[in-house]
Amino acid sequence: MTGPLIVINPNSNEAVTEGVDSALAPFRLTGGPKIECVTLRDGPFGIQSQLDSDSVILPLVNLVLSRKDAGAFVIACYSDPGLDACRSVTNRPVFGIQESGVLTAMARADLFGVVAISEASVVRHRRLMARMNVLGRLAGEIALNITVDESVHGNDTYVRLVEVCKTLKKLGAGSIILGCAGLAAHRGKLEEELNLSVVDPTQASVSMALGTLLVK
């Protein structure tokens, strides 16, 4: 029996972890690998800047090192902080939700769009997409200009999401990625309302991780 799949929320906002945990309910298969969602207590309340993103790298590495029982890891923050560092200290698979979300979106449509939390997030996301050499498949990325906490608790978040997704659809996006783990609860409703593929990147990462573990 393989070890558990550890899904790490790198910010310290428990509400985000709870939302991720709920979104992963369909992946908890009878007899399959256990999925454990954990909060990085040393992380900032929300990862909204490059400094926030860089600040969690060492705590993430320490957490990965402490979980010798794990079968695989998922870093549930859309800028994939610490992904390379964590991969360097373990022989277990480590998945980042941005990388997995982009790959999944490209498997669903020729062009994809991204909904970001803030303009600062867009800059970080483009760096990784440039590294992946996929900017030619990006129809556009638009920021909601809200905080990570508002992505979970904001009263107007869904209305703003619909507006942004409709704009991305007009730009040619056939698949849209929700560029923050805190937006997970909105995926199903958005997909139904827009009649468009909407990717929750944490679900995308966990899907890949489970596939890796189940074939072992």
What does this structure look like?
Helix 5 packs across helix 10. With 216 residues, the protein is an alpha/beta fold. The chain has helices at residues 14-23, 50-55, 57-66, 83-88, 97-108, 119-132, 148-153, 157-170, 187-194, 201-214, and strands at 5-9, 35-39, 72-75, 94-96, 112-116, 138-143, 175-178, 197-199. The strands form two sheets. It has a four-stranded parallel sheet. A four-stranded parallel sheet has the order 6-5-7-8, with helices on both faces. Helices cover 46% and strands 16% of the residues. The model has no long low-confidence stretch (mean pLDDT 94). The longest helix is centred in the middle third of the chain and has 14 residues, at 119-132. It is globular and about 45 Å long. It contains ten helices and eight strands.
Topology:
Elements lengths: L4 E5 L4 H10 L11 E5 L10 H6 L1 H10 L5 E4 L7 H6 L5 E3 H12 L3 E5 L2 H14 L5 E6 L4 H6 L3 H14 L4 E4 L8 H8 L2 E3 L1 H14 L2
Parallel strand pairs: 1-2, 1-3, 3-4, 5-6, 5-7, 7-8
Helix pairs in contact: 5-10
Summarize the structure.
With 216 residues, the protein is an alpha/beta fold.
